[in-house]
Amino acid sequence: MRIAIIGGGISGLVSAYRLSKDHKITIYEKSAEIGGLLSSYHRKAYSIERYYHHFFSGDRAFLHLLDELNLSDTILWLKGSTGTYQNGTIYPLTTPLEILLYPHLSIFEKFRLALFTKKVKHFDLSHLDTISAEKFLTEQLGEKIYRSFFRPLLNSKFGQNAEKISAAWLVSRVAIRSDRSLGGERLGYLERGFSSFIESLSNTITGYGGEIRINTPVTSIQKAGGEWYINDEPFDAVIATIAPGLLKKTGLDIPDIPYQGAACLTMGLVRPVTQGIYWINLYDDAPYGAVIGHTCFAPRAWYGEDIVYLASYYTGTPPTDLKERMIEDFQRKFSVRSDEILWAEMTRDPYAGPLYLAGYKEQMNMISVPGLVLAGMFSEENYPERSIEGSVRAGLRAAEEIVRMEKNPEVT
Fold it and tell me: What are the structural domains of the chain?
């Protein structure tokens, strides 16, 4: 079969990887590099992801795929520390002692928080989908715990939409991050980054004769005479992994779903500035919601400098001077001189991920186009939280659907 795959992100690459041995694959990727949100900057001495990433010990599909690609020996299990920036001070919140010493909650409030994290895996996510995280947490824990402890997390991930996010997302987020010891969260990373994973997928696809067309956006999708036409080129089947809003622009009649944009600033610094903490959510006002000290997580020796991300999420159009505003604010808050910043690059994506607003699941289940296989961040595999694992599983499911279609053409 001639199969077109729209989008060269994780789901698109994984489905192509599964199908390329027995089918003629063509991947359409609008950007200059494949990998989607997992693509990298390629510096002179190293590669570093454009957006911060890690994975979890329970990511079975991803870990199995790494094993298939002979990359299992590059897995590192590292400790992820967390903290918050409030009133000009960084508060570490990784260990029980650090949480106990956190001055913005009383002992009673900390006890309530501990009980909540113990029972979080037992909540019914289907019920919580229609409730905002703000309402749910305020009822469960009180206004002060919500504002002081959880609101910075929601701000860091959803910016101006923080108050509208579903409780299902929040509970899932807390539950998945419970793989921790007294010293911090156990997170996975690949030796020297994820570029080896993307390269291995790409080499396998092209090795079987698949074609990857970068800088090639899809402008039209039509079905005629039993064939699909992508940019007027005929195919037997199509897998679309890009956002439904982008698919609508090609002429498809497809329900839309809310997405948000991301602007991620990556910097090389001469010294560490996050006090050894990997992830800091900001409580104070800033043009970004989180500071991610990558080299407080991955070994600094790989890079020869300290790597920091500033993460900002938005809807609509971000300010044209956002990069400058982020750097200026970061320098002021973290006491960084201009000559201590070795380089700074910003990547923006207006369709960086779904907005898990209250009621999201019902909208997600409406996304379909007869005869077209859909997979991506909007898929069920990425509900109620998008991840590398979810995108891998979405790509594998899409490939399985194509195989079923080939065996039973009448089902299309």
Answer: 2-53+194-256+360-411 (3.50.50.60), 95-182 (1.10.3110)
